Automatic annotation (TrEMBL), chains A, B:
Oligomer status and interactors: Homodimer.
SUPFAM superfamilies for the chain: CBS-domain pair (SSF54631), MgtE membrane domain-like (SSF161093), MgtE N-terminal domain-like (SSF158791)
Family to which the UniProt record says this protein belongs: Belongs to the SLC41A transporter family.
Stated role: Acts as a magnesium transporter.
Protein name (Swiss-Prot/TrEMBL): Magnesium transporter MgtE
Statement: the UniProt record of this protein carries the keyword Protease: no
Keywords assigned: CBS domain, Cell membrane, Magnesium, Membrane, Metal-binding, Transmembrane, Transmembrane helix, Transport
PANTHER family assigned to the protein according to its UniProt record, in alphabetical order: MAGNESIUM TRANSPORTER MGTE
CDD domains from the UniProt entry: CBS_pair_Mg_transporter (cd04606)
Transmembrane segments: 279-299, 356-377, 383-415, 427-451
Source organism of this protein record: Roseburia faecis
Length: 452, 452
């Protein structure tokens, strides 16, 4: 647990003069100061703003979850100064939390350099990798000496803090390779710079979908990855902090979709916002559920003759649903690997069905035995009658689990193939198909074995 | 899509002599070479191993998903040399994939320095942050000049490549602060080093659970975070690549647990391994499902009199289940923030119930209207009889959805409070409670309104 900001808040409130406050703040991390701001009163915050340099405010504000609240406490001029001093991706993140009027005012008042970068980043869609990059990086022309490269680095490091990789551009300003800062530091003055340029350094292009290149970015596990235009010009970099954020967001989305939410939610959202994220899926499910209901209706006469069978409908359906979800979750994660061959997909399908068969067998036998005893003892059926009914449950469990594994694997593969996000579309369809299969198997078997 | 390794494989296979192969390999990233190894024959691979320096092999092997296969193709001596040259956390990751005999043999043959680091890392539990750290970092004593610090950096950079942050230790070797390499590079020779040491730099302690400190590590978004012993000695660092891996793993675990898997799975696991991950949850659910079955049994007489009610049981239960899962997923993510106050938890609970009430109201009314018409037209009931039944469904939906929201929020909070992982324990319990509530409400209402 991180309670440092509470300690800091207490300390700041106890200080009398500006000098003491400043000194105290300098002993804390920007993240702690940002957390402190969230618990202070607007009046206390305004005092803090007047004490700090814009550069420091920019660093602190980059850590805020809801920067719009705090930006509204600054004048447009001051806000623009702070945004200008932020990393371009942080600046864009902040601007996107503001209402359009405020955003426009601030953009108009930005530094010249910042305006260009911010406008470029804003031009990308949210799901394009270009929207996550920062223009804060070091680049040098090809053909420098080690010494020249080093002094170029020192010159640029004043304004750019992502220095661990130095990017090399050729004459036409196209990306030509990267130098690990470590290699530059340990190089001798008279070494040839060309020897330490890594030409196999990975890169992404600006309009690539984040979904599509995330695995690649993670695989190469570099500190930063250059973002190039279609024709190879360098536009920005994805830093390791960006990578962490991207992974967190993407995984969060997969997680949310699996739970039937259209996007990840948090505590700060209004009830209406949360409702909107959940309602679409629920409405779809209601309609699909009605289809299942009409199929169950076909078996009304089975229930009329043998009401005990309804006891175990929820059991069979729930198990089928659970198995389907397990297969779905595994398949979605496996499908993230875009290099998957058809053979591997078939392998996955066969494996899922084998698991369904084996698990279904185990659970089917358990259900057969335990429910048979239960029905005999508590429901007053004969041993044969009891095991007839529990046999239907056991066989239905086995069949439903195999089919659910199949459906839970094939449906996301199908959606993936036709380029629809399988995490969104599969859930409701799988639930419905599984319910139908389970209902038909269970009541069908009961009719055939017990009634006919 | 990343198909570079296929291009490389083709290229290497077309080369005649060692020199050509080496030159060609030098143009590709280690990650691509690692991918290439996975598609080559053992004979081809052995040729590659003999051509490359152990340092290069170590870099390539760090990118392999299943290093054990490739390590078995090296002699113990060579394998030990390669492991010795890896980052300590990568080395430990590799060793943990090997069988105990092979692992022991390699550890015995490691470099002296490597043995110490590897044994320390192996001493941590998998869920402790110490198990993820690397001992590859730069540290300098307090009190150096800028110039001395720079030359110390150059000296250590030869063997340590995480140089973007330089850690400062005091006389008793305790962590005293960190220097951003950028600040050191732009500092003038006669600047005071003390001025650029950040004393508020965040840190974690070695035995902290990864779960507990992940949010903190992400919040501070630094390139690397020092890992300290209880008494403040520096043991290692968590690099940005480690952070990406940690976030990916932790989120993957949450995802898997939500799907009813005990851990994330991938394509390479055997059927038996996957079965083991899924069966426990299924067995628990089977038993909980039996409890629900026995409660449904209480309402057998309702069904015997009015068989049509069974048509909509699956609808009500499915919807309750979905709403419960939505609330569960949101609550688990919110609970990850350890700074949450009781007031905020209550706020979440009230909000979830409001959403349940509103969504339940909308869906309840839809069900009432649509099912009433359906029952009248297709089942031959009078309008009053039809709306009586669909009214039961509508009200049950509303009640079940409110209760499911409540249960889906309270149960994970309860498990969180008593320090049981809510992501694991909540799912089955919530399903069961929701099923019970839905069944009792639905059949209870049907009995009261339609039969009595």
């Amino acid at each position: 647990m991180n309670k440092k900001y509470l300690e800091l808040t207490k300390l700041i409130r106890s200080k009398q003069n500006d000098h003491e406050i400043l000194k105290c703040l300098s002993n804390y991390h920007e993240n702690d100061i940002a957390d402190m701001l969230t618990v202070m009163t607007p009046k206390e915050r305004k005092r803090i703003y007047t004490l700090l340099e814009p550069q420091k405010i920019a660093e602190i504000f980059a850590y805020l979850d809801e920067p719009q609240i705090y930006f509204s406490e600054l004048s447009v001029k001051d806000a623009a100064k702070v945004v200008s001093l932020m990393d371009s991706d942080d600046a864009v993140d902040v601007l996107e939390t503001l209402d359009d009027k405020k955003k426009y005012e601030i953009v108009e008042n930005l530094d010249k350099a910042a305006i260009k970068d911010v406008k470029m980043l804003l031009s990308y869609d949210d799901d394009e990798i270009g929207s996550c990059m920062t223009t804060n990086y070091i680049c040098i022309p090809k053909g420098l000496s080690v010494r020249q490269a080093m002094s170029e680095l020192v010159r640029q490091a004043g304004t750019n803090d992502n220095i661990s990789t130095i990017y090399v551009l050729d004459e036409s300003l196209k990306f030509a390779g990267a130098i690990d800062l470590k290699d530059l530091i340990i190089a001798r003055k008279h070494d040839v710079l060309d020897d330490i340029i890594v030409r196999s350094y990975p890169s992404v292009t600006d309009h690539e979908k984040i979904d599509d290149c995330m695995e690649k970015i993670m695989d190469y596990s570099e500190d930063s990855i250059p973002v190039l235009s279609q024709d190879g010009h360098m536009l920005g970099v994805i830093t390791s902090e960006d990578i962490v954020e991207i992974v967190d967001n993407e995984m969060g989305e997969d997680y949310a979709k699996l739970a039937g939410l259209t996007a990840e939610e948090d505590l700060k959202e209004t009830t209406a916002q949360s409702m909107k994220k959940r309602l679409p899926w629920l409405i779809i499910l209601l309609f699909l559920g009605m289809i299942v209901s009409s199929v169950v209706g076909v078996f009304e006469h089975v229930v009329a003759v043998l009401p005990i069978v309804i006891c175990f409908q929820s059991l069979v359906l729930d198990m089928a649903g659970n198995v389907g979800t397990q297969s779905l979750a595994v398949t979605i994660r496996v499908l993230m690997d875009e290099t998957l061959t058809g053979k591997q997909k078939l392998f996955l399908l066969v494996k899922e069905m084998k698991i369904g068969l084996l698990n279904g067998g185990i659970l089917g036998i358990m259900a057969l035995a335990l429910l048979g005893i239960y029905i005999h003892l508590f429901k007053g059926y004969t041993w044969i009658g009891a095991f007839g009914i529990s046999g239907c449950v056991g066989i239905s469990l086995l069949v439903a689990m195999v089919i659910s594994s199949l459906v839970g694997t094939v449906i996301p593969m199908f959606f993936h193939k036709i380029k629809i996000d399988p995490a969104v579309a599969s859930g409701p369809l799988i639930t419905t198909v599984n319910d139908l299969v389970a209902v038909v198997t269970y009541y069908g078997l009961a009719f055939l074995l017990l009634i006919m």
